[in-house]
Task: structure prediction
Amino acid sequence: MRVTRALPDLALRTSYVSDILATTPIDKLARALDRLCAQAEQAEGPARETLLSVVDALGACHAREVAQRLREEAAGGALLSLERLVRQLPPARPLPEVETSEQRVPDYVKGRPLTLGERKSLARRSDRNTIDKLLQDPHPDVIRRVLKNPRLTEDDVVRLSARRPGRSEVLAEIARAPAWLHRSRVRLALMLNPDTPIELAALLAGLLMRQELHLVAEATHVSPPIRALCMEHLERRPPGGKAPPSEGAPVQ
Result:
Protein backbone atom coordinates (compact mmCIF):
# COMPACT_ATOMS: atom_id res chain seq x y z
CA MET A 1 0.00 0.00 0.00
CA ARG A 2 2.77 2.44 0.92
CA VAL A 3 4.67 2.09 -2.37
CA THR A 4 1.60 1.96 -4.61
CA ARG A 5 0.01 5.04 -3.09
CA ALA A 6 3.29 6.96 -3.27
CA LEU A 7 3.41 6.65 -7.06
CA PRO A 8 2.05 9.85 -8.64
CA ASP A 9 0.53 8.37 -11.79
CA LEU A 10 -2.25 5.79 -12.20
CA ALA A 11 -0.46 3.99 -15.03
CA LEU A 12 2.69 3.72 -12.91
CA ARG A 13 0.66 2.28 -10.06
CA THR A 14 -0.87 -0.36 -12.30
CA SER A 15 2.52 -1.20 -13.81
CA TYR A 16 4.06 -1.57 -10.35
CA VAL A 17 1.25 -3.82 -9.11
CA SER A 18 1.43 -5.89 -12.32
CA ASP A 19 5.12 -6.48 -11.65
CA ILE A 20 4.33 -7.56 -8.07
CA LEU A 21 1.69 -9.99 -9.37
CA ALA A 22 4.16 -11.47 -11.85
CA THR A 23 7.17 -11.83 -9.55
CA THR A 24 5.88 -12.63 -6.05
CA PRO A 25 5.53 -16.30 -5.01
CA ILE A 26 1.87 -17.15 -5.30
CA ASP A 27 1.38 -18.21 -1.68
CA LYS A 28 2.83 -14.97 -0.31
CA LEU A 29 0.97 -12.93 -2.90
CA ALA A 30 -2.35 -14.59 -2.04
CA ARG A 31 -1.97 -13.99 1.69
CA ALA A 32 -1.00 -10.35 1.18
CA LEU A 33 -3.91 -9.72 -1.18
CA ASP A 34 -6.31 -11.44 1.20
CA ARG A 35 -5.28 -9.02 3.96
CA LEU A 36 -5.62 -6.09 1.57
CA CYS A 37 -9.08 -7.23 0.46
CA ALA A 38 -10.22 -7.72 4.06
CA GLN A 39 -9.15 -4.17 4.92
CA ALA A 40 -10.84 -2.80 1.79
CA GLU A 41 -14.05 -4.62 2.72
CA GLN A 42 -14.06 -2.56 5.91
CA ALA A 43 -13.89 0.61 3.79
CA GLU A 44 -10.36 1.50 4.91
CA GLY A 45 -9.25 4.29 2.56
CA PRO A 46 -5.60 3.29 1.91
CA ALA A 47 -6.60 -0.32 1.26
CA ARG A 48 -9.39 0.69 -1.13
CA GLU A 49 -7.08 3.05 -2.98
CA THR A 50 -4.50 0.29 -3.40
CA LEU A 51 -7.14 -2.28 -4.38
CA LEU A 52 -8.12 -0.07 -7.31
CA SER A 53 -4.67 -0.61 -8.81
CA VAL A 54 -4.83 -4.34 -8.03
CA VAL A 55 -8.13 -4.56 -9.93
CA ASP A 56 -6.57 -2.55 -12.79
CA ALA A 57 -3.73 -5.09 -12.98
CA LEU A 58 -5.89 -8.22 -12.59
CA GLY A 59 -8.36 -6.97 -15.21
CA ALA A 60 -5.70 -6.96 -17.93
CA CYS A 61 -5.88 -9.81 -20.42
CA HIS A 62 -2.33 -10.97 -19.65
CA ALA A 63 -3.18 -11.41 -15.93
CA ARG A 64 -5.68 -14.23 -16.42
CA GLU A 65 -3.20 -16.94 -15.46
CA VAL A 66 -2.27 -15.10 -12.26
CA ALA A 67 -5.95 -14.64 -11.42
CA GLN A 68 -6.56 -18.37 -11.86
CA ARG A 69 -3.62 -19.26 -9.62
CA LEU A 70 -4.94 -16.84 -7.00
CA ARG A 71 -8.35 -18.54 -7.16
CA GLU A 72 -6.73 -21.89 -6.52
CA GLU A 73 -4.65 -20.51 -3.66
CA ALA A 74 -7.65 -18.76 -2.12
CA ALA A 75 -9.71 -21.95 -2.27
CA GLY A 76 -6.95 -24.12 -0.81
CA GLY A 77 -6.04 -21.65 1.95
CA ALA A 78 -9.55 -20.48 2.90
CA LEU A 79 -8.63 -16.91 1.94
CA LEU A 80 -12.22 -15.75 1.80
CA SER A 81 -11.71 -12.05 1.13
CA LEU A 82 -9.40 -12.80 -1.81
CA GLU A 83 -11.76 -15.47 -3.07
CA ARG A 84 -14.57 -12.93 -3.30
CA LEU A 85 -12.38 -10.64 -5.39
CA VAL A 86 -11.17 -13.22 -7.91
CA ARG A 87 -14.22 -15.48 -7.97
CA GLN A 88 -14.95 -17.00 -11.36
CA LEU A 89 -18.66 -16.67 -12.06
CA PRO A 90 -20.62 -18.63 -14.65
CA PRO A 91 -20.77 -16.79 -17.97
CA ALA A 92 -23.94 -14.96 -18.79
CA ARG A 93 -26.16 -16.62 -21.36
CA PRO A 94 -25.40 -15.00 -24.73
CA LEU A 95 -28.24 -13.18 -26.39
CA PRO A 96 -29.00 -13.59 -30.12
CA GLU A 97 -26.74 -11.30 -32.16
CA VAL A 98 -28.86 -8.56 -33.68
CA GLU A 99 -27.28 -5.69 -35.53
CA THR A 100 -28.23 -2.32 -34.11
CA SER A 101 -27.15 1.22 -34.83
CA GLU A 102 -24.67 0.87 -31.93
CA GLN A 103 -22.80 -1.83 -33.90
CA ARG A 104 -22.43 0.13 -37.11
CA VAL A 105 -19.60 2.56 -37.79
CA PRO A 106 -21.04 6.09 -37.41
CA ASP A 107 -21.12 8.53 -40.28
CA TYR A 108 -18.15 10.85 -39.78
CA VAL A 109 -19.41 13.14 -42.58
CA LYS A 110 -16.21 12.81 -44.60
CA GLY A 111 -17.94 11.85 -47.84
CA ARG A 112 -16.79 8.22 -47.55
CA PRO A 113 -16.44 5.49 -44.91
CA LEU A 114 -13.30 5.96 -42.81
CA THR A 115 -10.78 3.18 -42.33
CA LEU A 116 -10.04 1.84 -38.87
CA GLY A 117 -6.66 3.61 -38.94
CA GLU A 118 -8.30 6.94 -39.77
CA ARG A 119 -10.82 6.55 -36.97
CA LYS A 120 -8.05 5.68 -34.49
CA SER A 121 -6.17 8.80 -35.58
CA LEU A 122 -9.28 10.95 -35.10
CA ALA A 123 -9.69 9.60 -31.56
CA ARG A 124 -6.44 11.21 -30.46
CA ARG A 125 -7.16 14.75 -31.67
CA SER A 126 -10.76 15.71 -32.23
CA ASP A 127 -13.28 18.45 -31.67
CA ARG A 128 -16.36 17.98 -29.52
CA ASN A 129 -18.65 16.94 -32.39
CA THR A 130 -16.21 14.30 -33.60
CA ILE A 131 -15.77 12.91 -30.07
CA ASP A 132 -19.54 12.41 -29.90
CA LYS A 133 -19.27 10.38 -33.12
CA LEU A 134 -16.26 8.43 -31.85
CA LEU A 135 -18.15 7.37 -28.74
CA GLN A 136 -20.60 5.58 -31.04
CA ASP A 137 -17.83 3.66 -32.82
CA PRO A 138 -18.13 -0.10 -32.19
CA HIS A 139 -14.43 -0.91 -32.51
CA PRO A 140 -12.60 -1.35 -29.16
CA ASP A 141 -9.34 0.05 -30.60
CA VAL A 142 -11.09 3.34 -31.37
CA ILE A 143 -12.67 3.45 -27.91
CA ARG A 144 -9.32 2.68 -26.26
CA ARG A 145 -7.82 5.76 -27.88
CA VAL A 146 -10.73 8.10 -27.33
CA LEU A 147 -10.69 7.20 -23.63
CA LYS A 148 -7.28 8.90 -23.50
CA ASN A 149 -8.48 12.05 -25.25
CA PRO A 150 -8.11 15.03 -22.85
CA ARG A 151 -11.38 16.51 -24.12
CA LEU A 152 -13.37 13.52 -22.94
CA THR A 153 -15.43 14.14 -19.80
CA GLU A 154 -16.61 11.88 -17.00
CA ASP A 155 -20.21 12.38 -18.14
CA ASP A 156 -19.22 11.08 -21.59
CA VAL A 157 -17.74 7.91 -20.11
CA VAL A 158 -20.69 7.36 -17.76
CA ARG A 159 -23.10 7.57 -20.69
CA LEU A 160 -20.97 5.17 -22.72
CA SER A 161 -20.75 2.76 -19.78
CA ALA A 162 -24.52 2.84 -19.27
CA ARG A 163 -25.51 2.48 -22.93
CA ARG A 164 -27.73 -0.51 -23.63
CA PRO A 165 -27.49 -2.68 -25.52
CA GLY A 166 -23.76 -2.36 -24.96
CA ARG A 167 -20.82 -4.01 -26.64
CA SER A 168 -18.83 -6.14 -24.22
CA GLU A 169 -15.53 -5.28 -25.96
CA VAL A 170 -16.19 -1.55 -25.55
CA LEU A 171 -17.23 -1.92 -21.90
CA ALA A 172 -14.09 -3.98 -21.26
CA GLU A 173 -11.95 -1.13 -22.60
CA ILE A 174 -13.56 1.25 -20.10
CA ALA A 175 -13.05 -1.22 -17.25
CA ARG A 176 -9.36 -1.49 -18.17
CA ALA A 177 -8.75 2.27 -18.37
CA PRO A 178 -7.28 3.28 -14.98
CA ALA A 179 -8.11 6.97 -15.36
CA TRP A 180 -11.82 6.14 -15.66
CA LEU A 181 -12.04 3.02 -13.52
CA HIS A 182 -10.99 5.20 -10.58
CA ARG A 183 -14.21 7.22 -10.98
CA SER A 184 -16.98 5.80 -8.79
CA ARG A 185 -19.76 6.89 -11.20
CA VAL A 186 -18.08 5.01 -14.06
CA ARG A 187 -17.63 1.86 -11.96
CA LEU A 188 -21.28 1.90 -10.93
CA ALA A 189 -22.48 2.43 -14.51
CA LEU A 190 -20.39 -0.57 -15.63
CA MET A 191 -21.76 -2.72 -12.81
CA LEU A 192 -25.35 -1.81 -13.69
CA ASN A 193 -24.83 -2.64 -17.37
CA PRO A 194 -25.69 -6.32 -17.96
CA ASP A 195 -23.40 -6.37 -21.01
CA THR A 196 -20.23 -5.71 -18.99
CA PRO A 197 -18.09 -8.90 -19.16
CA ILE A 198 -18.92 -10.89 -16.05
CA GLU A 199 -15.28 -11.57 -15.12
CA LEU A 200 -14.61 -7.81 -15.00
CA ALA A 201 -17.85 -7.08 -13.16
CA ALA A 202 -16.84 -9.62 -10.50
CA LEU A 203 -13.59 -7.72 -9.91
CA LEU A 204 -15.36 -4.37 -9.81
CA ALA A 205 -17.82 -5.62 -7.20
CA GLY A 206 -15.00 -5.63 -4.66
CA LEU A 207 -14.58 -1.86 -5.14
CA LEU A 208 -18.17 -0.81 -4.49
CA MET A 209 -19.30 0.96 -1.36
CA ARG A 210 -22.31 -0.13 0.64
CA GLN A 211 -24.93 2.03 -1.10
CA GLU A 212 -23.56 1.04 -4.53
CA LEU A 213 -23.72 -2.65 -3.64
CA HIS A 214 -27.38 -2.15 -2.65
CA LEU A 215 -28.15 -0.61 -6.05
CA VAL A 216 -26.56 -3.43 -8.02
CA ALA A 217 -27.99 -6.20 -5.82
CA GLU A 218 -31.50 -4.82 -6.34
CA ALA A 219 -31.15 -4.28 -10.11
CA THR A 220 -33.19 -7.06 -11.71
CA HIS A 221 -31.54 -6.61 -15.11
CA VAL A 222 -28.09 -7.47 -13.68
CA SER A 223 -27.08 -11.13 -13.85
CA PRO A 224 -28.02 -13.21 -10.76
CA PRO A 225 -24.41 -14.29 -10.03
CA ILE A 226 -23.25 -10.64 -9.90
CA ARG A 227 -26.19 -9.67 -7.70
CA ALA A 228 -25.45 -12.56 -5.35
CA LEU A 229 -21.77 -11.57 -5.16
CA CYS A 230 -22.76 -7.99 -4.35
CA MET A 231 -24.99 -9.25 -1.55
CA GLU A 232 -22.07 -11.22 -0.17
CA HIS A 233 -19.83 -8.14 -0.26
CA LEU A 234 -22.63 -6.09 1.28
CA GLU A 235 -22.69 -8.31 4.35
CA ARG A 236 -19.07 -7.36 5.03
CA ARG A 237 -19.29 -3.62 4.52
CA PRO A 238 -19.50 -1.46 7.63
CA PRO A 239 -22.82 0.38 8.01
CA GLY A 240 -22.79 3.88 6.60
CA GLY A 241 -19.47 3.41 4.78
CA LYS A 242 -18.57 6.25 2.46
CA ALA A 243 -15.98 6.57 -0.25
CA PRO A 244 -12.78 8.38 0.73
CA PRO A 245 -12.91 12.13 -0.11
CA SER A 246 -10.24 11.75 -2.81
CA GLU A 247 -11.93 8.87 -4.60
CA GLY A 248 -13.00 9.58 -8.15
CA ALA A 249 -10.22 12.03 -8.88
CA PRO A 250 -7.38 10.31 -10.74
CA VAL A 251 -3.84 11.18 -9.77
CA GLN A 252 -2.20 13.38 -12.37
